[in-house]
Amino acid sequence: MTKKDSKLDEELPLGRSPGPSWQDLLETDSRAVPDYLRAESPYLNGLDDIPKSRYLSRDWHELEKERLWSRVWQFACREEHLPHVGSYIVYDIADQSYLVVRVSDTEIKAYPNACLHRGRLLKTYDGRCSEFRCPFHGFTWRLDGELKQIPAEWDFPQAAERNLSLPEVKVGCWAGFVFINPDTDCEPLEEFLGPDIQQHFERWDFDNRYLAAHVSRTIRCNWKIANEAFTEGYHVGATHPQAVTYTGDPQSQIDFWGNTARELSPKGIPNPLLNYTPTEEEMLRDALDVRVGEPLPVSFEQGDTLRGVLSAAGRERFRESFGDRVDEITDAEFLDAWNYMVFPNFHPWGAFNRIVYRFRPNGDDHETCVFEIMYLAPFAGERPPPAEVVHLGPDDPWTDAEALEKLGMVVEQDTFNMERVHQGLKVLRRDGIMLSRYQEALIRWRHDLIEAYIARGPVQL
């Protein structure tokens, strides 16, 4: 990745928030901290503004369709969505549609979702089938993509000279997630992800979780605006005032490794912008949304800390599914916000957080998007079936989805900003937006990577 020209950026030291850092809190952890969790890899790549046209321009959206979504690895579904041979899902991105199907117990394939006769979509919903039969004229393909039948084949003499197998797109699996890449010349998924995120997630056993909730909402903004609302903690003081007593978002640690990155936000320390220091009990009550005078749902004694109490509760909550190895897991993994990101639009939170986010254009409309929230929960015994998707319209609040619990209120606060940002960019009398150097560095990281994809030119089909 090319370093941007910015003499000022090169001359400045790395500024960080006052107060304890996430690394400082690791020193107080009740468990041994693995070396790789102590890794730090900041992203400092200039101070240039990000052009607002990247959010508003139809031309830029067309470039993303042609040069980003056509060649990048992207999360399509969980392996549990494909439990049986013949199970398939329809994955849509911008104006493209793909079928992802389990062909055998050990193989998943993906194809563009179009009949090779007249182009009709083969499927418009998820399900299970024994073959792909076009509803228009009946052209039929086997699950492995091989042509099975052409009705009235005698009238298609040219068919014998053509390859009429369904064209394949690349498929890769990691941590129970299924990815596709339409570019047949792409690097393997493992190489795209890099070793760091793969090493981290091995510790948390994401393969053995199930989809406990899945909520999708249409938002009136460009997909990057929605995505970027969850790429920095700088907004917490203004957007989520209820969290400032117990969340040190300005002290978040931000790291990147190629196509993956993370933001680690500590819990149990107050925002340094507060003008007072809350007690441990005050922080705990705010974190659990329990009013003064009401009983706490966890034991809290004199001398206890929020970090100690909630990490202990987390161990017991996960003990049934993870066993006694939870006793070796750090407090930080049970308590802090581990917001991992896989370029360009996928946020599996990591550690023992259940949250997964995905952001996509809403069809071919660059001024609206689809924001999805999923919960990946541990289980004991037989894997429960994945939750059905709850679809919300742009005016339906997240709190209508009861499965999201307290998170519904929090993301409702975030969503309140998104449409206003999209509208405000049209009003802004500047050509671009300004980013902080450290706290908003992951927004710059994503734009730099998008820019690199755009610069590569169109995919050669």
Number of strands: 20
CATH overall fold name of the largest domain: Naphthalene 1,2-dioxygenase Alpha Subunit, Chain A, domain 1
Determine the oligomeric state from the structure.
single chain
Number of helices: 13
Strand content bin: 15-25%
Low-pLDDT residue spans: none
The outline comes out as: globular
CATH superfamily of the largest domain: Naphthalene 1,2-dioxygenase Alpha Subunit, Chain A, domain 1
Percent helix:
25-40%
What is Rg? 24 Å
Tell me the number of structural domains: 2
Quick overview of this protein structure:
The protein is of the alpha+beta class and 461 residues long.
Structure description:
The protein is an alpha+beta fold and 461 residues long. It has 2 domains: 15-68 and 196-455, Naphthalene 1,2-dioxygenase Alpha Subunit, Chain A, domain 1, CATH 3.90.380.10; 74-181, Rieske Iron-sulfur Protein (3-layer Sandwich), CATH 2.102.10.10. It contains 13 helices and 20 strands. The chain has helices at residues 7-11, 22-26, 53-56, 58-68, 189-193, 195-202, 223-228, 236-239, 280-288, 306-322, 331-335, 406-427, 441-455; strands spanning 50-51, 74-78, 87-93, 96-104, 107-112, 127-128, 132-133, 140-141, 147-149, 170-174, 177-181, 209-219, 253-257, 260-265, 337-342, 346-348, 355-362, 365-378, 390-392, 432-433. The protein has a 5-stranded mixed beta sheet with strand order 16-17-18-12-19. Strand 3 and strand 4 (96-104) form a beta hairpin. Helix 4 packs across helix 13 (441-455). The model has no long low-confidence stretch (mean pLDDT 93).
